[in-house]
Amino acid sequence: MPRRPRIDFAGFHHIVNRGVDRGDVFREKKDKEQFLKIVCKACKIYKINVHDYCLMDNHYHMLIELTSENLSLFMRQVNSNYAIYFNKKYNRSGHLWQGRFKSYYILDEQYLFTLYRYIEQNPIKAKIAQTVGKYEFTLIATLLNPKLSVIECAEHSQLKTLLKEEGILEHLALDLTTDETEYLKKEQTRKIEIKEHELKLQKSKTLQEHFEVEAGKDARNIAIINAIDDGYTQASIAKHLDVSTSAISKIVKKFNA
């Protein structure tokens, strides 16, 4: 099966990498600290911001923002330099990482803010922390605890702004629902078109296919919401159905109320 094309475009990327054969890549606290130092150094070189991270023993998650098309260069420096450090320290040789890193390009805020919860809840699912913010090697822990130093490359993280909102910690601590988990899987596997240096989500269905539904107002309204979730604009849906854009807007507002 051919590899998915690597998207290096400026913007937000969710990065995941794990140890070969799912083995540990961080054996002690100092290893995780060294990894973050390497990340920060690479961020300065490639002008990258870290918006969130979680370092588990055998894998890591990072939510980063590129300002240039240099994801592969950045990740090569991070993973290679850390592998050199790790192999030398533990007198080992060979590959440290399980193949190439995985990266997912983020095109909308819903995906972005769902990822914050997913990343920060990793230690809870692994049962090494009871609530968000208690595991030292997540960004939110460093933002909440003045004794922990916030890594420089996360200075402009949106989490800083989010934490000012009332109830945000409780929200981040909420388990992802089945629908939200399925949503993340869908976003990670959705194909992205690259046309004239612009990224667009590839639609899963044509508008004609979206509206091949049983007769009835409720079925049509659900089809409208599904088409919007698939990336179609309200204007294009209104044109297809031969109704006004304001009528579509009212349906969307009612659905989201």
Find the structural class using helix and strand composition: alpha+beta
Q: What topology, given as strand order, has the largest sheet?
A: 2-3-1-4
Largest sheet: 4 strands, antiparallel
The count of β-strands is 6
Question: What is the residue-averaged pLDDT?
Answer: 86
Assign a percent range to the helix content.
40-55%
Order of helices and strands: EHEEHEHHHHHHEEHHHH
Molecular shape: elongated
Number of helical segments with 4 or more residues: 12
Uncertain regions spanning at least 5 consecutive residues:
1-5, 193-201
Global Rg: 21 Å
Topology, element by element:
Layout: E1 11-18, H1 29-46, E2 48-55, E3 59-66, H2 71-89, E4 102-106, H3 109-120, H4 122-125, H5 139-144, H6 158-162, H7 168-173, H8 178-189, E5 192-195, E6 198-201, H9 207-210, H10 217-229, H11 234-241, H12 245-256
Antiparallel strand pairs: 1-3, 1-4, 2-3, 5-6
Helix pairs in contact: 1-2, 11-12
